[in-house]
Amino acid sequence: MSTLKSAPRKLVALKDLKPNLWRDLETNPLNPERVTAIAKSIEVNGWWGNIHVRPAPNGKGYEVAYGWHRVTAISKANGPNTEVEVMVQNLSDGEMLRFMADENLEGAGGDALTDIQLIAGVITAYGEGRIDLPAVPAGTDPKFIKMTGGSRPPVRYTAVTVAQFLGWGYPRSGRNSIEATDRCQTAFTAWHLIQDGLIDLAMLKAMKKEYGRLNTKDVETAIKAAKNAVVVNKEFIAKMENDAKDAEANGEKKIAAKYRAKAKEATEDKTETARAAASDAVARTLDPIRIAVETSKIVKASVKRTTKRKNTPAPSLFNEVNTLIEELKKVKGTDQFSVRLGKLLKMSDAIQPAQLPRLQAAISAAAENSEAMWSEREKTWARPFTMKTVTPPTRKALMPARTA
Fold it and tell me: Which CB contacts under 8 angstroms, 24+ apart, belong to 341-344?
């Protein structure tokens, strides 16, 4: 019969604890909401401990393998001089990376910035000779193979060998080999595009801060946009070069020079173009989240004011309707316009009868006159205001799809 033993425990002051060596808090800061939630849980349920640490390489304090949100929460609630019980182990760099990977899978909801940071840590540690990765299998397509920099001679690696190290792989169907998971492959690709300057890491960080999330799908969107921008850029450069050759063949040297100047400019702008495309794509993906949050806040505040009056809409609702009517006349499909539609949808019964026909007419005219500027979302949100009185052709234009 075997016996399982836990690591030796020791009381350590919170101020002597340091985050995981591979966790870059500047690039990927803690989630304040998660810290607050943990602090409240500790207040109700007490401190559960289970903090694994290793002695810091410089002999000063201890590095926390995982659970830095918890350490921050208890420090915030009780102060940095508070002593907590930790489990001290002589963990390797590889084990510290794996602890961080497991924590992100289980406790952090799969944050994409942490995934990218993990991939960066594995590649850096491998390049410095601090960890070992499985060998790249013979016959691997060269386009999938990367080479490390670092303090030792360059060594080969792929997304699959990194996935094997982190435990982020799965058996390929019908083959005796391993495939990297989607999140591993996405983080791996993103990291290398960041190194090539085609995706801006600061942009991803800013997006996460503004929208409150950054998951694998969001990063995939950035990757696709950046790669597509590179392809379009190459095609444009090739076209300019060909046009320059044709112009030279016809003796039009000045025109040929203009084409070559455009090709040169496109070559120099390749990186910036890809970064801008990635940023715009992620912003478009995440924008509905911001609109939904803003709409929810506005609706809650307005409903709270409106419920205090029986059958009488709040003055703010009256103003919102008039403002929306004026915007509809100009056909301004702005974010604030969408917010107003969502807000009014929640309170359509409170709109004054005298305003409703004008609102319906304005929505109908806007949809008929500027069909291309109306998104499917705006058509759907506008539909409740138009279904009662508008003509059949207009009703059809406003409905994105009929349901049985």
Answer: 341/378, 341/381, 341/382, 342/291, 342/295, 342/298, 342/299, 342/381, 343/295, 343/298, 343/299, 343/302, 344/317, 344/320, 344/385
| Structural domain range at position 361 | 309-398
Residues (pLDDT < 50) of the chain are 4, 108, 309-315, 332-334, 388-404
Name the pTM for this structure: 0.66
Q: Is residue 121 part of a domain?
A: yes
Cα separation, 109 vs 7, in Å, equals 27
314/390 same-domain check? yes
**Burial tier of 391 (Cβ tally within 10 Å: 0-12, 13-18, 19+):** exposed
pLDDT of residue 134: 92
At 395 the pLDDT is 40
Is residue 119 within 8 A of residue 191, CB to CB? The reply is yes
- Of 71, 90, 53, residue with least CA distance to 15: 71
Measured CA to CA, the distance from residue 384 to residue 347 in angstroms comes to 11
Tokens of 237: 């450069």
Burial of 160 (0-12, 13-18, 19+ CB in 10 A): buried
Structure confidence at residue 402 (pLDDT) = 40
| One-character DSSP codes across 165-207 | HHT-EEEPTTSSSEEE-HHHHHHHHHHHHHHTTSS-HHHHHHH
Are 20 and 108 contained in the same domain? no
Same domain as 84, residue 14: yes
Is residue 248 a part of any domain in this protein?
Answer: yes
Buried b (16+ CB within 10 A) or exposed e, 346-378: bbeebbeeebeeebbbbbbebbeeeeeebeeeb
Q: Are residues 355 and 391 in the same domain?
A: yes
Backbone angles phi, psi at 138, to 5 degrees: -65, 145
Burial of 156 (0-12, 13-18, 19+ CB in 10 A): middle
Contact 162, 119 (CB under 8 A): yes
Using one digit for the tens of pLDDT, what is the confidence trace for 324-377?
A: 666 665 554 445 655 666 666 666 666 666 666 677 667 666 655 555 555 555
**Selection from 287, 302, 300, 272 nearest residue 333 by Cα:** 287
* Token pair of 193 as six digits: 């595009």
H or E element, residue 114:
helix 112-127
